[in-house]
């Protein structure tokens, strides 16, 4: 983390709200209050017996939320929520406080509350579902965002909607499933151990019970982008290196210019935040696999082995759009990297942070596979939308991909020590 | 591996069959034969840059297939295939040869063929899809099985059907989806890196093109059973330790008695093989999460924290079914471990090797999650069927689980050096 003020909430809050505890207990909550809660002083298990060797922990509190410039972890569980009917503004604030409290604990490798899965009353549902007991945090980050619909008239937030939290336009070729798109709230849980990411989403859903319900969710099994220079570039399901020309955490001037929102962008409360765009992109991998290596490389604009631009050099060589081969541009103008490159988009850049997915197969025996694309930026209109408009119109890759889900979320700044994500919005 | 004769196929076979190469190229295969294939002498990339630290490799050739008593890896991609119409017995043998050749390479951290993703002709589809380039084998095992339907009249195998490859009966409470059950062939790919397991299934599906097609498939993100004493016991999505009383690889006398098929079981060709039963079990985790800790522990028969039997002791203490608490059995007779225990099933034991799954969520916002149960044994009738009959009738856990897919497969012995899985069947 470059410029986070890392803090820690030990004893800063008394724990989950009564409403949050009721959520954990479900509807038959009358019996609660005595046994359940944060009374037990149980030592947290965070031993090294986990399946992942990764012992990293990232701060939950700080200037920015973690999970944005954090070195991309290996696995993802992403979830979008809708606020439940009858939920008031105060309830919503309560939910964000409970989420923040539980998230801060989980990112330290702790259970959602002090009594956790086994330290509460025998006669009440445990606070924590338990499947992460004994596992380390494995680099868990929990990043919370607010969709455009949160700023309607339900919570008195209409005047606070950031001008840069636009409604995404529809793009040529979109085939979006509405039930798998949008959402009032989102949570991105990334970890090197999928059991940890799944545990986080499951427990935060539970805490939301009665206040917000899961709208859609997505598991990602392998990161497709490196976000720091220390990481090897991973590969996507087209078999190509992905993340080579990504904005990297170390590019601090670019990160400041292109990723972090500032008060001057029309919404003070977003200062230090960012905007997340998600696109679930189904890849026709069987069709792709039948193309020649030349066609595949022509589509991407880079070679498959090393990831070097077709204009020559090695993986990290600058792309030379003037280089010719057989009289034509060596990097075709309809190649993905040409159309997505900042030089052809008024300098626009993205911090990409996507994941490969496989959701079983269809009835024709084709794997339902692709890229769950996530990117961060401070100006979606002039970054994601600009680039995607160019891609949707001319990208040679369009023959092999289809966008099936879409989301945009304002990701507020990090919570202050003992505070909660969204505190600047509701203050 | 306890008693494998570890061998290695370097130069033992000439590579993928022409038919296999045609599969890789799809229908427009006329152009092939020259550029594609196994000619190029490209060094395989298997560096340590992968996302998983696991550098383990397991032998593909040997007395038994790997992936059975092998220390359970963290991730799973399981696939069931149906043989395509018009496929002959010889084609089927050719497919098994191609699968074995490619599987042996992949389990060594190599690409499916020597020319792989980038070493072939520019003008042909690459042999390998490439997303595992640069990653180590990460403990990959590929285990191939034959379903009962393979022994119908299509391939002249009816007389070779092992008597122990029974059709599973239907059990009380079953809610099976036929499209997600059964299959002529199965492949279990396990690895510590999901990208490696997905790459294996995808490439083996590709090689099968025109000869067998994917019927159903399942990703599992976290192992639910330990199969060796060296492994920490993982947890399932009910938050309980799973695998405590599992048959372990080190119990060699029990493994010989209960896991490996022998010639005396009515099918010579299965000597050294085993039988795999798969059950996709959806877990109603939201309902479970609303139960008290006491109810959860009563259902399982063990405590949630340490995994000790309710009769007392620690995780690996023997269960005392005579112990009483408040006049009743401390381990209730309808608890899962009581009903599943060998003492109550004529000594029957299983080698369990299941995985947690989450397949998104349903329209009510409930995670579609559960256990993809896999077990190995040499006598399904008297092992899985016996135990599952007892569980289906009385298991207190039934209120929280539902079986939605089912499969049974004869898993032949390991291939001999340079041979193929199934050689004893077709010999
Ligand atoms: C399934 C869909 C996609 C695939 C398979 C894919 C794949 C790739 C690959 C292989 C590269 C080259 C390596 C690298 O620099 O990271 C790349 C670069 C890039 N992609 Fe994508 N991409 C997809 C969708 C998108 C979308 C939706 C966007 C944004 C609208 C996008 C924006 C970019 C950008 C900005 C670059 C860097 C271009 C440069 O500066 O050289 N990609 N992508
Ligand atoms: C979602 C479904 C299931 C869950 C959550 C589950 C969970 C558990 C748990 C927590 C244990 C105790 C720890 C251990 O010894 O591993 C256990 C034991 C066991 N389970 Fe399951 N199980 C499920 C399905 C099945 C099925 C379908 C079978 C076989 C038909 C089975 C057979 C066994 C056996 C044989 C034991 C060991 C009993 C003993 O000897 O103590 N389980 N299971």
Automatic annotation (TrEMBL), chains A, B:
InterPro entries: Dimeric_a/b-barrel (IPR011008), Dyp_perox_C (IPR048328), Dyp_perox_N (IPR048327), Dyp_peroxidase (IPR006314), EfeB/EfeN (IPR006313), TAT_signal (IPR006311). It comes from the Bacteria. The gene is efeB. It catalyses: heme b + 2 H(+) = protoporphyrin IX + Fe(2+). Signal peptide: none annotated. Pfam families: Dyp_perox_C (PF20628), Dyp_perox_N (PF04261). Its EC number is 1.11.1.-. SUPFAM superfamilies: Dimeric alpha+beta barrel (SSF54909). Belongs to the DyP-type peroxidase family. It is an enzyme of class 1 (oxidoreductase). The lineage of its organism: Bacteria, Bacillati, Actinomycetota, Actinomycetes, Micrococcales. Involved in the recovery of exogenous heme iron. Extracts iron from heme while preserving the protoporphyrin ring intact. This is Deferrochelatase. Its cofactor is heme b. Residues 233-415 form the Dyp-type peroxidase C-terminal domain. PANTHER family: DEFERROCHELATASE, DEFERROCHELATASE/PEROXIDASE. It is found in: Cell envelope. Keywords: Heme, Iron, Lyase, Membrane, Metal-binding, Oxidoreductase, Peroxidase, Signal, Transmembrane, Transmembrane helix. It comes from Frondihabitans peucedani. Binds 1 heme b (iron(II)-protoporphyrin IX) group non-covalently per subunit.
